[in-house]
């Protein structure tokens, strides 16, 4: 019989030996084929993951090519490190001669080379795509250079016609480096479209303020033009746009635009210079610098005819702003600033029209005129004509038309007695 303390100590020693597994080196000596096959499988899977991940990244290239490409480089670099570790392990742990299963090692090597081949194919496709993009950019730049050269030749030709050489014109730009553009029908057409948008934009706050002031919009629209049959109630907004247009374009055909400032000398060259001077300026800054200018007086006169005194009194509760304008001032209120944007667009169009030789002519369309696709354009899309033989007729002229040389810019009209397809 042994003492109890000695017996317990032996039992603890025996138990402690059972809970600890054998070291890895011992396991490897006992079964090296399994350990090596496991490691090869891990590395093969990592290599496969590299190929799959790169292909996935290629599919996401349109989102942000630069960031994805940079991320790909990092991933590839890390996976290459794993591959080097695998080769390091293989070099320092050669397969024993007695191990028969060479097929497993060879298959893993083949799989790795296939995955690397897929990786290189993906990278080649990326490089080919980048080359194509660069070629496309080169072609676009060549086209831009060609267009710039054509514009330069055209500008030099115009300068020669005006008696200016290229050297003399180098300092002809303004302080911002602006070079005057050519007078073309397209330039005038763009100005017409800008004026049309300005009328539409000013009518919105005008109608909203009428609503807020409690105006009967149906009655107001009917007072502008009576007995118009509107396809939709919302189309009555064109009556207000027509009202603004008629008053803003009054006197358009005159060189002075019904404004008679002192010492006025209107020529085609001065009209174009006035167009260039105001084109890039804020209209409030322009009238602020010189309220008695040609443009400033134009704004004062048009504001008084576009905005009725009763309308203004209902908006603001008094006529203080109107009296200020009548005294030659230009208030900095939001409503008047909105009007100045409208006035600027019409003024620029007038200055540009009288810069051409011969000057651009404006034409209006009267109510009841039969619709003509040559001279008119409907402001409402999807118009359905009446089934009868009668042609559609004009109810409102929203924007006048213009003759510029042999080109016709259609007037914009609202047709009455028609339907609108949904």
TrEMBL record:
The keyword Cell division does not apply. Residues 110-158 form a coiled coil. Residues 362-414 form the GIL1/IRKI C-terminal domain. InterPro entries: DUF641_pln, GIL1-like, GIL1_IRKI_C. It holds the Pfam family GIL1_IRKI_C. It comes from the Eukaryota. Keywords: Coiled coil. Residues 1-30 are annotated as: Disordered. Residues 31-157 form the DUF641 domain. This is DUF641 domain-containing protein. The lineage of its organism: Eukaryota, Viridiplantae, Streptophyta, Embryophyta, Tracheophyta.
């Amino acid at each position: 019989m042994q003492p109890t303390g000695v017996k317990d100590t032996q039992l603890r020693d025996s138990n402690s030996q059972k809970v600890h597994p054998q070291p890895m080196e011992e396991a490897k000596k006992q079964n090296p084929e399994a350990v090596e096959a496991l490691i090869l499988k891990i590395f093969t899977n990592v290599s496969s993951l590299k190929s799959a991940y790169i292909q996935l990244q290629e599919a996401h290239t349109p989102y942000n090519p630069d960031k994805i490409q940079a991320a790909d480089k990092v991933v590839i670099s890390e996976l290459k490190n794993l591959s080097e570790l695998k080769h390091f392990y293989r070099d320092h742990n050669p397969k024993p001669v007695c191990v028969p299963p060479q097929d497993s090692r060879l298959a893993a090597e083949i799989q790795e080379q296939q995955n690397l081949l897929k990786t290189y194919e993906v990278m080649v496709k990326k490089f080919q795509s980048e080359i194509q993009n660069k070629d496309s950019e080169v072609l676009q730049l060549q086209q831009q250079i060609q267009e710039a050269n054509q514009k330069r030749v055209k500008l030099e030709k115009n300068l020669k016609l005006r008696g200016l050489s290229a050297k003399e014109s180098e300092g002809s730009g303004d302080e911002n480096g602006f070079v005057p553009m050519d007078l073309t029908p397209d330039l005038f057409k763009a100005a017409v479209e800008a004026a049309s948008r300005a009328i539409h934009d000013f009518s919105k706050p005008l109608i909203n303020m009428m609503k807020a002031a409690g105006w009967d919009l149906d009655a107001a629209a009917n007072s502008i033009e009576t007995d118009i049959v509107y396809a939709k109630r919302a189309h009555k907004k064109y009556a207000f746009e027509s009202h603004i247009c008629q008053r803003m374009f009054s006197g358009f055909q005159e060189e002075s635009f019904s404004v008679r400032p002192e010492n006025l000398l209107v020529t085609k060259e001065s009209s174009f210079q006035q167009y260039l001077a105001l084109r890039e300026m804020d209209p409030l800054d322009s009238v602020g610098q010189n309220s008695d200018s040609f443009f400033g007086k134009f704004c004062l006169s048009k504001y008084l005819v576009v905005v009725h005194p009763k309308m203004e009194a209902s908006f603001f509760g008094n006529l203080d702003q109107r009296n200020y304008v009548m005294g030659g001032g230009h208030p900095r209120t939001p409503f008047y600033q909105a009007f100045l944007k409208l006035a600027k667009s019409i003024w620029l169009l007038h200055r540009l029209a009288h810069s051409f030789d011969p000057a651009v002519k404006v034409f209006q369309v009267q109510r009841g005129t039969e619709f003509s696709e040559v001279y008119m354009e409907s402001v409402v899309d999807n118009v359905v004509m009446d089934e009868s033989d009668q042609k559609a007729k004009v109810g409102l002229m929203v924007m006048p038309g213009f003759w510029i040389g042999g080109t016709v810019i259609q007037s914009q009209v609202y047709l009455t007695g028609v339907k609108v397809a949904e």
